[in-house]
């Protein structure tokens, strides 16, 4: 009977150790998400969350599995996009205009990823550590800022009197389609904080003047070439007459 209880005790200890080795949720701190990576099965598709039961047999094999933990804090940042309309500097210098046709947009953006999408990013080798995750989110914010800036510029090009503040957040997001470039990212907040837009009406006016001037220069150049050719032809004819 004593041996029986000893055997039961040993089995209990054994199963307790087995359970402890495969129990992963206690290894993940609050606010973190864990990813199980093993030599036998690669990257597991299910994220490990604190307070949510999870057990993996892969940890029973020595040095077979590891748990990668990430902080899933949303990234809040400001992104500024600057630039100038094509040939704007040329028009400014030629017509002594004070407007350089520069533009800039400053956006306030907050992004995050879900635990499931975090696993997808890791499986696709887009991230390997916390720094990579933050860089990925920052890059997604850069992409969103550039897409939104392009959207505003297209609107202004079509309608120079277009008011940026009249566009709703939903309209911008529907047109920029961030999900196509960064499908794993969740956009929590987006706002245009500051902006400077070029005068498209003046830009088109100077652009037209520049094109007309270029056309005049081209016509004058052709006229001078024709006169020079005619002069050379007359001189050649005269030379030929003397030789005869």
What does this entry look like structurally?
- By secondary structure, this protein is α+β, with helices and mostly antiparallel strands.
- The chain is built from 7 helices and 7 strands.
- It has helices at residues 2-22, 88-94, 115-123, 130-158, 169-176, 178-181, 200-243, and strands at residues 32-38, 42-43, 48-49, 65-71, 75-84, 102-113, 185-196.
- Strands 1, 2, 3 and 4 form a 4-stranded antiparallel beta sheet that branches.
- A hairpin with a 3-residue loop joins strand 1 and strand 2.
- It is rod-shaped and about 110 Å long.
- The model is unreliable at 215-228, 233-238 and 240-244 (pLDDT under 50).
Biggest β-sheet strands, sense, barrel:
4 strands, antiparallel
Structural class: alpha+beta
The termini sit apart by 142 Å
What is the typical, i.e. mean, pLDDT? 79
Report the uncertain regions. Answer: 215-228, 233-238, 240-244
C-alpha geometry: rod-shaped
Whole-angstrom Rg:
34 Å
Total beta-strand segments = 7
Q: Secondary-structure element order, as H and E? A: HEEEEEHEHHHHEH
Question: What is the helix fraction of residues, given as a range?
Answer: 40-55%
Roughly what fraction of the amino acids lie in strands?
A: 15-25%
- Count of discrete alpha- or pi-helical segments spanning 4 or more residues: 7
Question: Which features does this protein show?
Answer:
244 residues; 7 helices; 3-stranded antiparallel β-sheet; alpha+beta; rod-shaped; 7 strands
């Amino acid at each position: 009977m004593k041996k029986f209880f000893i055997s039961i005790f040993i089995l209990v200890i054994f199963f307790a150790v087995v359970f402890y080795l495969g129990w992963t949720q206690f290894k993940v701190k609050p606010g973190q998400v864990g990813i199980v990576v093993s030599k036998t099965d690669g990257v597991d598709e299910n994220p490990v969350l604190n307070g949510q039961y999870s057990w993996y047999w892969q940890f029973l094999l020595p040095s077979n599995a590891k748990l990668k933990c990430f902080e899933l804090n949303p990234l809040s940042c400001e992104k500024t996009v600057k630039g100038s309309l094509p040939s704007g500097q040329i028009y400014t210098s030629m017509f002594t205009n004070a407007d350089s046709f520069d533009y800039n947009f400053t956006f306030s953006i907050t992004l995050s990823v879900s635990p499931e999408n975090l696993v997808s990013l890791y499986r696709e080798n887009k991230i390997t550590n916390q720094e990579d995750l933050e860089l990925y989110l920052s890059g997604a914010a850069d992409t969103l800022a550039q897409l939104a800036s392009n959207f505003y510029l297209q609107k202004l090009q079509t309608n120079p009197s277009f008011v940026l503040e009249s566009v709703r957040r939903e309209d911008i997001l529907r047109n920029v389609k961030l999900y196509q470039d960064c499908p794993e990212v969740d956009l929590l907040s987006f706002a245009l904080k500051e902006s400077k837009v070029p005068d498209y009406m003046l830009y088109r006016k100077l652009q037209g003047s520049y094109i007309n001037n270029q056309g005049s220069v081209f016509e004058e150049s052709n006229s001078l070439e024709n006169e020079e050719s005619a002069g050379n032809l007359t001189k050649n004819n005269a030379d030929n007459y003397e030789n005869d």
